[in-house]
Amino acid sequence: MGLPTLEFSDSFVDSPDFRDRLKCHEIELDRTNTFIKELIKDGHQLVCALKNLSAAVQKFSQSLQEFQFECIGDAETDDEVNIAQSFKEFSQLLSTMEEERRRLIQNADDVLITPLERFRKEQIGAAKDGKKKFDKEAEKYYSSLEKHLNLSSRKKESALQEADAQIDKERQLFYDASLEYVFKIQEVQEKKKFEFVEPLLAFLQGLFTFYHEGYELAHEFEPYKQQLQFNLQNTRNNFLSTKQEVEKLMNRVRSADQDQKPPGQWTMEGYLYVQEKRPLGCTWTRHYCTYEKGCNTFITSSPTEKFRLKSCIRRKTDSIDKRFCFDIEVVERHGIITLQALSESNRRLWLEAMDGKEPVIVWSLSKYACVLCLYIGVCSVCTVYILLSAGLNTMGLYRVGGINSKVQKLMTTVFCKLLHSTHLMPASRTRQINLNIKTLKSYICIYLCGVCAEGVLIYLFCFFLSESDDQNYRVCAVHALVHKLPDKNKEMLEILIKHLLNVSTHSESNMMTVSNLGVIFGPTLMRSQEETVAAMMNIKFQNVVVEILIENFEKIYLMANVIKHKTNKFSFKTVCEHIHRCYNLMIFIHRDAKAIYSCEAENSNELSFPQGAHFSNVYPSVEPGWLQATFEGKTGLVPENYVVFL
Predict the structure, then answer these.
(1) Cα torsion at 114, 115, 120, 121 (round to 10°)?
(2) Is the dihedral of CA 420, 425, 429, 435 positive or negative?
(3) Which end of the chain is more exposed for a tag (fewer CB within 10 A), N or C?
(4) Which portions of the chain are predicted below pLDDT 70?
(5) How far is Cα 80 from Cα 76, in angstroms, rounded to an integer?
(6) E strands within 420-568?
(7) How, if at all, do strands 614-620 and 591-595 pair?
(8) pLDDT at residue 272, as a whole number
(9) Cβ distance 219 to 63 under 8 Å?
(10) Phi, psi of 594, rounded to the nearest 5 degrees
(11) Which of 185, 170, 183, 186 is CA-nearest to residue 138?
(12) 366 phi, psi to nearest 5 deg
């Protein structure tokens, strides 16, 4: 049931029922007043909590802004660069959100607290003042009425008339106070419907604006989020691949002879005990020592001393009571310096590095052992390619391995015959070979990994890929390295990459995207120059190389046909020149040009053309100062300063 209506006419009667109905309004007004006071208190706490939350988010955002990712290795992939930048993107997003929250907090007093305070004081307070006045006038009136009714009728008529006038006056004051109070209390009950609710609505609108801003930011953030998720997945795949290689390296190091030359910039380095002679004998002090054979420099630490080596001789066991000793002579000191190695094999390594008398045992792989990296006879290549073309829609192709026993059996039986065959096997015979597709793919990966014991591409590609963010430059860098492969390797690589491109076009069914293929075939096709953790960290670039080869297959092999080289000698200078030439080709290829002068050909490989002639497919020629162009269906050379590009 709602509140009863208060009629103005009831103010004159002032019946008990009127007082009861008036009491209901007063109780409701007190309840509303108490509720508003609690609401204002809760509002203050909410604003305080929002301020604390905003301060915490701002501090969190600042921490994200100040943090800097440091990745292992000298270069970073695009995925790592984006991930490292992500914290700053997150920080910027949070800062933008907090700006809107600060506006919400600043407006909270104006739109919520102040209006509620004003309604409570001005409206409810006025109603309470009206009640006080009503109660005062009622008490005064009824007290005067009681006295007036107790007047004796024997009093003079003038006194009675005066008393009647006074009571009429007080009755009118009572009626006025009652009418005003009834009007005010009902006015407040009606006003609270909007003046009480409007501030809450305005505050909620501010909240909605804040949340809507968050929705808009989330919508704008969606493309970056998707790209970052792609970067994270690639990095996770790279991590799993790198982790496996590092674990293998750790196990090899664990099982190998610990007294072997560690990889590093020095010819030899490690701890040695140096004999220091004293008046009452000698002491042996441990120093970390390095030796550089190129400049014949021997350095000890703590304190650091640098010597130029003259000779190194193994110390006979019967001439000293210490084991594993050898003597060196240096330019800076007279006499010999006696050193003690950590073991016999460790001493042998030091003697070997310093050209001592210990037997020299040098073991290393040929730098160009990778000649067999991708080479298979032409007929065998065709056979393998036919088999590779099967099962393109198989889920998890190349990622899901075959049964090891079946793979080993395949390696020792079927493929031994296939790969040494000098004739192409007919397609009908190929279909008769009942091989599980997973077994076949596992063999291909193992075979490529086995013959690629020392890859060439890995030696320089990290530098070129990290030198520039320009995708065209990277394509040219990869092309330059591929171009330096022996012809057989290059032919096999072209066949394999063409196949992987075909595999990637079926990624909706086999789930093997270009990125996934890069993770699998990057470590398979390439090897680090040395087996160290630092080198293992560059596996991620191997994956990038394979991705570039697949995604830019036609572009890379188009440039291979345009740019001819006289040598396959692998050097930093020739690779840089090749990249520069390819990069220019990438920029100018397929451009149109117009002749600003006419020209008559002097050689068969040149073009004759009139002024204003239109050329198509214009790109730099290997001849300095000349361009290769097509005019009226004929392709030849035109002077570079005779044309302008359109």
Answers:
(1) 60
(2) positive
(3) N
(4) 1, 256-264, 357-392, 397-470, 473, 484, 488, 527-540, 555, 557-588, 590, 622-623
(5) 6
(6) none
(7) antiparallel
(8) 93
(9) no
(10) -130, 140
(11) 170
(12) -60, 140
Say if CB 394 and CB 350 are below 8 A apart.
no
Residue 112 DSSP label: I
Q: How many residues does the chain have?
A: 646
> What is the C-alpha to C-alpha distance for residues 56 and 97, in angstroms, rounded to an integer?
13
Q: Cα angle vertex 570, ends 79, 364, to 5°?
A: 90
Q: Which two tokens stand for residue 425?
A: 């096997």
Residues 6+ apart with CB under 8 A from 520: 398, 399, 445
Question: What are the CA-CA distances from residue 583 to residues 49, 322, 444, 551 (Å)?
Answer: 58, 63, 34, 17
Place of tokens 């029922």: 17
Show the tokens assigned to 482. 């591929």
- CB–CB of 382/300 below 8 Å? no
pLDDT of residue 38: 93
- DSSP-assigned states of every residue in 541-583: HHHHHHHHHHHTHHHHHHHHHH---S-----HHHHHHHHHHHH
From residue 635, alpha-carbon distances to 348, 519, 563, 565, 618 in Å are 65, 42, 15, 20, 10
Q: Which residues, in sequence order, are CB contacts of 427 under 8 Å at separation 6+?
A: 386
User: 588 with 617: CB under 8 angstroms?
Assistant: no
CA–CA dist 522, 554 (Å, integer) = 19
Q: Would you tell me the crossing angle of helices 572-588 and 458-467 to the nearest 10 degrees?
A: 50
3-state helix, strand, coil in the chain (%, to 5): 60, 10, 30
Would you say 462 and 74 are in contact if contact means Cβ atoms under 8 Å apart? yes
Query: Residue holding tokens 């301020």?
Result: 51
Say if CB 622 and CB 637 are below 8 A apart: no
pLDDT for residue 560: 52
Long-range own/partner contacts, residues 578-583 (CB < 8 A, 24 or more apart)? 578/476, 578/479, 578/480, 578/483, 578/484, 579/464, 579/473, 579/476, 579/477, 579/480, 581/620, 581/622, 582/475, 582/476, 582/479, 582/480, 583/472, 583/473, 583/476
**Which two tokens mark 607?**
């073009």
DSSP letters, 484-495, are: TS-HHHHHHHHH
Burial of 538 (0-12, 13-18, 19+ CB in 10 A): buried
**CA geometry: angle 177, 181, 187, nearest 5 deg:** 150
Residue 303 CA to residue 287 CA, distance in Å, equals 9
d(CA 273, CA 587): 60
Instruction: Give the integer Cα–Cα distance in Å for 53 and 510.
Output: 47
Structure tokens given for 394: 């198989």
| Residues 279-313: tens digit of each pLDDT | 777 889 999 999 998 898 999 987 889 999 988 99
Q: Are 171 and 164 in contact (CB under 8 A)?
A: no
pLDDT attached to residue 373: 32
Confidence at residue 289, expressed as pLDDT on a 0 to 100 scale:
93
- The b-or-e profile of 140-170 (16+ CB within 10 A means b, else e) is ebeebeeebeeeeeeeeeeeeeebeeebeeb
pLDDT at 222: 92
Please give the pLDDT value at position 148: 86
Q: Which amino acid is at 134?
A: F
